[in-house]
Specification:
The longest helix has 18 residues. Helix 2 runs parallel beside helix 3. The chain has a five-stranded parallel β-sheet, with helices on both faces. Helix 3 links the parallel strand 3 and strand 4. It has a single domain, classed as Response regulator (Rossmann fold, 3-Layer(aba) Sandwich), CATH 3.40.50. With 123 residues, the chain is an alpha/beta fold. 42% of the residues lie in helices and 20% in strands.
Length: 123
């Protein structure tokens, strides 16, 4: 079972993503911000991180930078309501950038594709 870490400061988004991805067969945990996510990444090997950008205390791009320093092997999908961050150099470290939508099809497809690609590459 592939494991996901959802990082978003919005409680409702975290709950929705946890339920939706668990229904699709993933083991899902959630963090309310970057600092919490980094602590969780120290003790658990997640296959993929879904990361919001606009968060208090430590934003997603800063969190992404820290992940790249310490956990380079984990796939990261930026999931933000702000498409303008796509052009920020720091966001290019993520494997994908999906603009938030009430329809989760694109995010789910992106997660599935990245995990499948990594599974094939690991053989």
């Amino acid at each position: 079972m592939k494991s996901l870490l959802v990082v978003d400061d919005d409680t409702n988004v975290r709950k929705l993503y946890e339920a939706e991805f668990a229904e699709d067969g993933y083991a899902v945990e959630a963090a309310s911000g970057g600092k919490e996510a980094l602590k969780m990444l120290e003790g658990t090997d997640y296959d993929l991180v879904i990361l919001d950008i606009k968060m208090p205390e430590m934003d997603g791009l800063e969190t992404l930078g820290e992940i790249m320093k310490s956990r380079r092997g984990v796939a990261v999908v930026i999931n933000s309501a702000y498409p303008s961050f796509k052009t920020e150099f720091a966001s290019w470290n993520a494997e994908a950038y999906v603009v938030k939508s009430s329809n989760l099809d694109e995010l789910k497809k992106t997660v599935r594709t990245l995990l499948e690609r990594r599974s094939v590459g690991a053989r």
